[in-house]
Amino acid sequence: MTRAASALPDACAAAIVGGGPAGLSAAVALARAGVADVHVIEREREAGGIPRHCGHPPFGMREFGRVLTGPRYARRLAAQARELGVNIHTETTVAALAPGGLLELSNDGGTRELRASRVLLATGVRETPRAARLVSGGRPAGVTTTGALQSTVYLASMRPFDRPVIVGTELVSFSALLTCLHAGIAPVAMIETAPRVVAWRFSSALPRVLGVALHVNTRLERILGQRRVEGVQLRLHDGASRVVDCDGVVFSGRFVPEASLARLAHLAVDDFSGGPVVDNFGRCSDPAYHATGNLLRAVETAGWCWNEGRRAAGALRAALQGALPDPGESIGVVPVHPALKYAVPQRLARSETRGRIQLRVNRAVRGRLRCLAGERVLAEKRIDALPERRILLDVPLPRDLREEESLRIDIAEAH
Ligand SMILES: Cc1cc2nc3c(=O)[nH]c(=O)nc-3n(C[C@H](O)[C@H](O)[C@H](O)COP(=O)(O)OP(=O)(O)OC[C@H]3O[C@@H](n4cnc5c(N)ncnc54)[C@H](O)[C@@H]3O)c2cc1C
After folding, report:
1. How do the residues of the chain divide into helix, strand and coil, expressed in percent and rounded to 5?
2. Domains, the chain, ranges and CATH?
3. Nearest CA to ligand 1 atom 48
4. What is the pTM assigned to this prediction?
5. How does pLDDT run across 346-374, given as a tens digit for each residue?
């Protein structure tokens, strides 16, 4: 069900940008907590976010206590929000953010403004497309990402190619493989630059069982073909070049937060995570804005983002009641070891006694992960980490941290 843009008010208590699992779970939690005036703004025809086009299970165990496919899960999240009186405005894009919670909206009716006491940004992630990967060759048809492939297959019931190669071996790359199977498409190869599959090691059994060649330590150098993809040129681990015949290329993973709105606006964006800078309440550099879900960092599962949305709602409600501490009273968190991809949140409120930091590494690394304030070790744990695995570090926050201090996250590597 879509709602007319005219149902949009000029002002509201809480506006949520993005109707994926994080935005919808926040909306539900706010409505349940008695916040009457919650508006979700969603640019697609239907709310539900990425799971709308993930036509496979498992979604929903944590949220609904049963295993659902992505589309069922998405429908259930949106229905639950509507039942609780949340206003979902689909086919409406937030085009700009202005200080203090002023949103510029755009839809078929034109542009208009919405002022919200608090705004929750929940715009998710996107995969790195071909252009940003600097792969040479022409611009033939048949080059896509997993998300676009899933939309074509599950939402438009179309088959864009018959024999593609899949670039990447993250979890989502196997989702691309399953999408191909569903549509009767037979991928010819999966290609990975790293020395092993990035997803769990047992995932490499799937291409083997399906007769799909898996090339690790291999780089996609060039896409061949002018009108349609006719093949790809690979650089193998031993330096040799090889051409693989295919009629499509799926660029999967290498997720980045969908942070264009924050970047174009006045909000601070973190160079490490690519998402907005937030404190442990999810507050952005302008405290009228909060952020949650995969926008914070790439990339977590739907269930994790759903849970983050619920927690963000708690903080948003406290903010609406004026019950959060002064946003200036916080301390920065900075990843200093080159193997650390990011540390989120980037600030911790000094009023709290503990903070939880989410981290990832960009290469395999073993050693002791440490949170340091000056020379003092506040928290430490052993890690044996691979890329794209979540790492959590709980940090106690002593009262005597100096005003100018930042917390440094470092790794003492085991060699
Ligand atoms: C291709 C792909 C496949 C994935 N497969 C899985 C999977 O199988 N299982 C899994 O657990 N996770 C998967 N993920 C991870 C996925 O990101 C999470 O499952 C979950 O969807 C994150 O929830 P979210 O609410 O943070 O973001 P999203 O689900 O991405 O929702 C963000 C919403 O914001 C909307 N939006 C963005 N910008 C604007 C704007 N300016 N104005 C209005 N609306 C806007 C988008 O249309 C979207 O509906 C996948 C991700 C991708 C990209």
Report:
1. 25, 35, 40
2. 5-126+255-320 (3.50.50.60), 129-251 (3.50.50.60), 330-413 (2.60.40)
3. 49
4. 0.96
5. 999 999 999 999 999 999 999 999 999 99
Evaluate if residue 6 carries a pLDDT over 80: no
- 24 Cα: distance to centroid of ligand 1 (angstroms): 11
Share of the chain above pLDDT 90, in %: 93
For residue 305, report the distance from its CA to the centre of ligand 1, in Å: 9
Residue type (1 letter), 248: G
Q: 276 pairs with which residues across the strands?
A: 269
Tell me the pLDDT band of 4, cut-offs 50, 70 and 90. Answer: very low
Q: Which residues pair with 39 in a beta bridge?
A: 15, 87
Q: What are 150-156's contacts with CB under 8 Å, separation 24+?
A: 150/53, 150/54, 150/55, 150/175, 150/176, 150/179, 151/53, 153/53, 153/55, 153/179, 153/182, 153/183, 154/52, 154/53, 154/54, 154/55, 154/71, 154/179, 154/182, 155/52, 155/53
Question: Which residue, chain included where needed, has tokens 């929750």?
Answer: 120
